[in-house]
Amino acid sequence: MIKRTTKFGPCVLAALTAFLFIGGSDAAQQQDFSKIQIKVTKVSGNIYMLEGAGGNIAASVGEDGIVIVDDQFAPLADKIQAALKGLGITDKPVRFVINTHYHGDHTGGNVPFANAGSTLIAQDNVRKRLQTGGTGGNGGSVKFESQPAPAAALPVITFEHDVTVHLNGEDIRALHFPSGHTDGDAVIFFPKNNVVHMGDDFVRYGFPFIDVASGGSVQGMMDGLEKAIAQLPADVKVIPGHGQLSNLDDVRAYIQMLKDTTAVVQKAMAAHQTVDQMKQEKILAPWAKWSGDFVNQDTFIETVYNSLTNHPGPFVKHN
Ligand SMILES: [Zn+2]
Q: 185: Cβ–Cβ under 8 A, 6 or more apart, which residues?
């Protein structure tokens, strides 16, 4: 169940458990996964996108076997395996799982995949945060607890800056961008197939959740995305952390929204407004179309304010 310390309303809870995460296995136990179907979309060449519950999965499926990026929730692992086998391309296993960050809706399947023989790969801070557990959130009204993960859930290979997996004729490259959605984010490039998985640095559910309590920041998210798109071909296919397949124009519109809203919060801070005053004045009303069930205008004001003031909330754990 959701911890008592969380302050979510019922509809936010529904949204969270539907497509985001809270507290890893707690949410997995609460949600009924029996009705979840895994939808497979061919993105390009031998790269597929899998949608079920939780974050989007990217899969490279070929003669050497399978590499997946993120693994949703543990109860879905068998269905994900079946969906990959059902492509009829290879009988070889999922050899590697790359986690884009530590959140439970992206790493929840780590144990069953590791038990099935996959090697888990992630940025250093993903392993640390999975190992220790802790409190995540936006430093304000969004707060959640993660329990320390079991040993089998921990990435076996970690990297500080980047790592490349040479499989299926492609140099699949995971590149770390510091302090975006969390402090352990990786963006995964499939250069031959011209596909990128952005993790939760780019999502399609409106204003993003930024885990300020886990080292994330709105400035880092903007910087990371700008650096990422500068390295990408104009026609790259973009798999977001959540939501539909996208392109670089979608990413640019999202970056612009982050810049504009951050500038408005900065201006209000310069005028010595409090967070409550910013909420009362609805300073993000011009961006209302980005307001979602999970992160609405008020929640995003808190997020940006806490990013800019380096106020990660009361229980932050530093690496
Ligand atoms: Zn996330």
A: 100, 101, 123, 176, 177, 178, 199, 200, 201, 216, 224
Cα(116) to centroid of ligand 1, in Å? 24
Distance 268 CA to ligand 1 centre (A): 28
What is the distance between the alpha carbons of residues 97 and 107, in angstroms, rounded to a whole number?
9
Give the Cα-Cα-Cα angle 45, 74, 211 (nearest 5 degrees).
Answer: 85
List the alpha helices (DSSP H) in the chain. 10-19, 25-30, 77-85, 104-107, 110-115, 124-132, 218-230, 248-270, 275-280, 297-308
- Reading the chain (319 residues) residue by residue, the pLDDT tens digits are 233 333 333 333 334 443 444 444 455 556 899 999 999 999 999 999 999 999 999 999 999 999 999 999 999 999 999 999 999 999 999 999 999 999 999 999 999 999 999 999 999 999 999 999 999 999 999 999 999 999 999 999 999 999 999 999 999 999 999 999 999 999 999 999 999 999 999 999 999 999 999 999 999 999 999 999 999 999 999 999 999 999 999 999 999 999 999 999 999 999 999 999 999 999 999 999 999 989 999 999 999 999 999 877 654 444 4
CA–centroid distance, 138 to ligand 1, in Å, is: 12
CB 149 within 8 A of CB 130: yes
Number of neighbours of residue 308 by Cβ within 10 angstroms? 15
CA of 40: how far to CAs of 43, 47, 49, 264, in Å? 9, 10, 6, 40
Q: Based on the number of CB atoms within 10 Å of its own CB, is 116 exposed (0-12), middle (13-18) or buried (19 or more)?
A: middle
Q: Which residues surround ligand 1, an ion (CB under 5 A)?
A: 103, 200
101: CA distance to ligand 1 center in Å? 7
Backbone angles phi, psi at 205, to 5 degrees: -95, 15
What is this structure's pTM? 0.90
| Count of helices and strands (H, E) across the chain | 10, 14
